[in-house]
Amino acid sequence: MTSSHLHQTRCQTCSLSSLCLPLSLSLDDVEQFDTIVRRRAPLTRGETLYMQGEAFENVYAVRSGSLKQTIIDTDGEEQITSFYLPGELVGLDSIDSAVHPGFLTALERTTVCEIPFKRLESLSEHLPELRHQLYRCMSREIVDDRRLMRLLSSKSADERLASFFHNLSIRFDRCGHSAERFRLPMSRSDIGTYLGLAIETISRVLGRFQQQELLTIQGRHVEILDMAALKKHAGIIAPCCNERRRA
Amino acid sequence: MTSSHLHQTRCQTCSLSSLCLPLSLSLDDVEQFDTIVRRRAPLTRGETLYMQGEAFENVYAVRSGSLKQTIIDTDGEEQITSFYLPGELVGLDSIDSAVHPGFLTALERTTVCEIPFKRLESLSEHLPELRHQLYRCMSREIVDDRRLMRLLSSKSADERLASFFHNLSIRFDRCGHSAERFRLPMSRSDIGTYLGLAIETISRVLGRFQQQELLTIQGRHVEILDMAALKKHAGIIAPCCNERRRA
DNA sequence: CGACGGTTTGAGTTGCGTCAATTCGTGTGG
DNA sequence: CCACACGAATTGACGCAACTCAAACCGTCG
To answer: Which of B36 and B240 is assigned the larger pLDDT?
Structure first.
């Protein structure tokens, strides 16, 4: 039956476990961890995992697909603050206020693991590695946000987009896709909102990138032709943060 | 003698303890916590607490004064990613890579408490409240960074500065200063780098704010005359995040 | 008093946003 | 199966907010 099917998958056999919270846990510990994880039915494109203002109960690990976080400001403007790919942890920004600061929406068919935060917290009492991993995840999120801040505060449209694609490439690579060819899960408009650029600017810059033969892009299919040049265009280089992570 | 003087101050008697990590600890627990905290000699204006690339060992709680974090990008450009005021925790972004991502520099005479992270982590094993407080601090830092991202990605110079002053006002208020009158610890140039604006723009906008009688500013002395109007100018309103925090 | 950061003010330039029109792509219904 | 419709993406023309460069001003410290 369906519900048992949903519970079949386990951390022990998950291909993403080397990216996810169980990262540095022993087999025994992973087994303990696995018991508090709930598998959810897949979300379809556009479906929301939670709403802005909703009470915070769980964090989520992305298994497949992708999501975006959208925050609606007091002035009613919509902003995208982050995208989440497989192996990444969603909801860490909700701990402080115990309320979700934004909407979490699936960009495509997406499966996530639901992890009740209270139980995660208690479990972390006896698993120092898990605790450390949690601290690291949150710390990394801060570092990544700071990188985006620097991008937004002083970089040109070209640099922002080059950095964006370079960053995506690294993250797709890490979760088992190709670093050179991938399908964009988000629309141009999403990219624009995220990078603080008008959709028309996105379009123009991508046109330029194709002329310069940095990459090709048709619809949502991207192929990066000259990674080195893309990196150079980016200015702020993501790998300096990302290499270390793997260590 | 001096060194004993430095160790005199204790968390139990610190006026900031209600903002800081010991926030929700019992008296006994605060005492335990206090034993791992090291008081340092004050930093003078311009002195660095740590350098970019240095190994991460400690986090720091600001007791008095203020600091800025500066990151030098691969392209050599200098960016200020955050300011830290009394009661705030510094260094949480260094956990992931175990290396400080930027320089931490005192903006004025500043005292900090040094907290060895390894010992903090072990201590947190037996103090659930401390653990939770740490998670909250990190989560809050993410939320605050996201707010700045939204500011940078789509707000005008006026909105950025209004939001900046409003935010400062709240934070000064929280650590015991006046919300309406305070001394800016940072230069206009620092503000510009932080908000992604040219120093000339800062100057012009502040001129405009004075004409509109939102505030007066001479040198570094600020007086906010019309908090409500300032808030309205800000668009993104900080308090929505900050009110919750106190709950 | 003169020198030197830090700040303000002015004039000219430009990257990107806005508006508007066109094209492309995909799904729908006759 | 084609025609139509609708949203997503592109392209072009134009304006403006903020940047850059340059000069003047200010406070402070030797």
So the answer is: B36
Query: Count of CB contacts below 8 A, A vs B?
Result: 156
| A3-152 fold | Jelly Rolls (2.60.120)
Task: State yes or no: pLDDT of B235 exceeds 90.
Answer: no
Residue A27 has pLDDT above 70, yes or no: yes
Reply yes or no on whether the pLDDT at A129 is more than 70. yes
The span from the CA of B213 to the CA of B211, in Å, is: 5
Nearest by CB to A138, which of B142, B148, B237?
B142
Lowest mean pLDDT, pick from A21-25, A59-63, B60-64: A21-25
Rg of chain A over CA atoms, in angstroms?
18
Residue A187 CA and nucleotide D9 C1' are separated, in Å, by 10
Overall fold of domain B155-233: Arc Repressor Mutant, subunit A (1.10.10)
pTM given for the model: 0.92
Query: What is the distance in angstroms between the Cα of B133 and the nearest Cα belonging to chain A?
Result: 9
> Which residues of chain A make contact with B150, given a CB cutoff of 8 A?
71, 73, 79, 81
Domain ranges of chain B: 3-152, 155-233
